[in-house]
Design a protein that fits this description.
The longest helix has 30 residues. By secondary structure, this protein is an all-alpha fold. The protein has one domain. It contains eight helices and no strands. The radius of gyration is 17 Å and the shape is globular. Helix content is about 70%, strand content about 0%.
């Protein structure tokens, strides 16, 4: 279901006001978009390995703490904000996974690598391994990698990916995003299988 155009305009106006220093804007923005942020956090966490300690509400709160670092972005739309929020959530979870993996390595436990389920956000793949592979991929194919980040980690639909990427300065279309996704999925699955 496509978001209400009036709600999108309101979200964009609060983003602009926040960038310009309005102290109340982030609170108003968060109120408007909290449900989407919580849904995004739930997508991330539903695919985390057993034993993770974060809950969706805690992940959204950690995101809120870190949003101050992106206030000055040239905000253009809701999808752009969600893409940045998903990037921050991804970094929070990858940092937690790295810490957890370091603790497990210290215990001598072998960490298995699951086959990535790239057809759903955040799949069942090891987040650290996917993050590493995605970094290598981004060096060669930055536009493709950005589309993967937005879909795999952000849970955005193809139309939202186009909107977010165009808001970030990419000049892309729905057809290009879909083609990039097919190529990216194959490249990353091959990379993860090789270890």
């Amino acid at each position: 279901m496509a978001p209400d155009p009036n709600a999108l305009a309101t979200i964009t106006s609060w983003l602009v006001r926040w960038r310009e220093g309005d102290g109340d804007a982030l609170s108003q923005l968060t109120t408007l978009i909290y449900g989407e942020l919580h849904r995004l956090a739930a997508i991330f966490l539903s695919n985390e390995r057993e034993g993770h300690t974060l809950q969706p509400t805690a992940l959204v709160h950690e995101l809120y703490v870190r949003l101050g670092g992106v206030q000055g972005f040239d905000w253009k739309c809701r999808a752009q904000f969600l893409s940045v929020a998903s990037d921050i959530m991804r970094h929070i979870l990858v940092d937690n996974a790295r810490k957890r993996n370091a603790e497990k390595r210290g215990s001598g436990e072998v960490l298995p690598v699951d086959e990535a389920a790239f057809d759903t956000p955040a799949g069942s793949a090891d987040l650290v391994q996917v993050d590493t592979a995605l970094g290598r991929f981004a060096d060669r194919y930055p536009r493709h990698a950005r589309a993967v980040e937005l879909r795999f980690f952000g849970g955005l639909r193809a139309e939202e990916i186009v909107e977010a990427m165009n808001g970030e300065g990419y000049n892309t279309s729905l057809r290009t995003v879909e083609r990039d996704w097919r190529f990216s999925k194959a490249w990353l699955q091959n990379e993860l299988e090789r270890g």
